């Protein structure tokens, strides 16, 4: 009798295990198919949510000016954002493509010349003599070196041209993200209610504080890092385009990357000043140098104005996030990676402090903006 009962229990156990395995397998297939369907929308939706959180205070102010029409306010912000993206994108991309094409033509023709530095370069304070010597050595041996590595250089420029060719997809991704952000901002109450339920289930009683800290971190990094880098790159790029320097678009893109990576823009500004004094008339070189130098140090003025108080993310976190994000999702990942990694860093620090992020949050947000934080969670 006992053997029959054990056999029956064994059969029931095997049946239950088989049924559970089938259910888990079907659920896994469903999850995989769902992920494949929504995968193209994950990055723009995530970026749109980050933009919506960062711009929600501006949406509230514009909503009050438009007498409560939040949908119109969100639409206007999205349209302005698209215009601010498309205009410099077209100018910079055209400049980069033209510079790459001209460089490839020069390399193919073999007529490679770098102008010798003038005596005015040597007269630059502190670095002038050293810069003159390095420049002279490079100019004297440039043609031989470039001709030796010509195949590798051509391959590099071809790859760069391919990246530029795919940049249109990135622009479309940005536009889609802004439209998604407009939808989130127009329906912030419903989105906040849904996120609150998810946060309570995932985090527990500290859900409100955690989501508020996340919102504060997003605003701090998006405005204080990405926003400052964008403004600084535009200031530097405007000087390059106005004075017609070669590869102005590519240099503007480099300035943007340096700004997001929290590296000083003077890395490229100082060599450009030296180039200006060697190739321009004195007055033009001075105006250009003052303009681009002010752009190079503008982050020291803009960051205290835009960076949220109390949310202090170390530079390596931003740098790793920017580089990793770019490798993962292209140009949009350059912005997205820095924000996402900063969020995880702040949440991790709050968890190390005992799981109570209220103290960090109290320093990160000003009291008058508390309503905006709550509405943007």
TrEMBL record:
GO terms for cellular component: membrane. The keyword Membrane applies. InterPro entries: AI-2E-like. It is found in: Membrane. It is a multi-pass membrane protein. Keywords: Membrane, Transmembrane, Transmembrane helix. Its main location: membrane. The chain crosses the membrane at residues 20-35, 41-59, 71-97, 159-186, 221-244, 250-273, 285-306, 318-345. It comes from the Bacteria. The keyword Magnesium does not apply. Pfam families: AI-2E_transport. Belongs to the autoinducer-2 exporter (AI-2E) (TC 2.A.86) family. This is AI-2E family transporter.
């Amino acid at each position: 009798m006992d053997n029959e009962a054990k056999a029956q229990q064994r059969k029931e156990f095997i049946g239950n295990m088989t049924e559970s395995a089938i259910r888990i397998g079907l659920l896994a297939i469903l999850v995989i198919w769902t992920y494949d369907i929504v995968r193209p929308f994950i990055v723009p939706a995530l970026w749109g949510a980050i933009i919506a959180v960062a711009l929600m205070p501006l949406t509230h102010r514009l909503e009050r000016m438009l007498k409560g029409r939040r949908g119109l306010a969100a639409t206007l912000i999205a349209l302005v954002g698209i215009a601010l993206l498309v205009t410099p994108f077209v100018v910079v991309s055209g400049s980069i493509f033209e510079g790459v094409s001209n460089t490839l033509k020069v390399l193919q023709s073999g007529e490679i010349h770098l102008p010798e530095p003038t005596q005015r370069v040597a007269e630059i304070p502190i670095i002038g003599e050293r810069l003159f010597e390095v420049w002279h050595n490079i100019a004297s041996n440039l043609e031989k070196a470039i001709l030796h590595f010509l195949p590798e250089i051509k391959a590099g420029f071809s790859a760069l041209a391919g990246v530029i060719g795919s940049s249109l997809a990135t622009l479309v991704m940005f536009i889609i993200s802004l439209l998604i952000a407009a939808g989130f901002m127009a329906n912030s109450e419903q989105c906040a209610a849904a996120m609150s339920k998810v946060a309570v289930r995932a985090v527990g009683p500290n859900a409100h504080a955690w989501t508020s800290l996340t919102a504060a971190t997003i605003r701090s990094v998006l405005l204080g890092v990405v926003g400052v880098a964008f403004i600084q790159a535009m200031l530097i790029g405007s000087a390059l385009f106005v004075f017609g320097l070669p590869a102005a678009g590519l240099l503007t893109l480099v300035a943007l990357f340096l700004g997001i990576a929290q590296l000083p823009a003077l890395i490229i500004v100082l060599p450009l000043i030296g180039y200006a004094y060697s190739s321009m008339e004195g007055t033009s070189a001075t105006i250009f140098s003052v303009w681009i130098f002010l752009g190079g140090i503008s982050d020291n003025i803009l960051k205290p104005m835009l960076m949220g108080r109390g949310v202090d993310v170390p530079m390596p976190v931003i740098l790793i996030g920017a580089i990793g994000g770019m490798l993962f999702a292209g140009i949009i990942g350059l912005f997205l990676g820095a924000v996402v990694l900063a969020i995880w860093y702040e949440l991790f620090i709050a968890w190390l402090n005992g799981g109570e992020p209220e103290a960090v949050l109290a320093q990160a947000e000003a009291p008058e903006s508390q309503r905006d934080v709550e509405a943007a969670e």
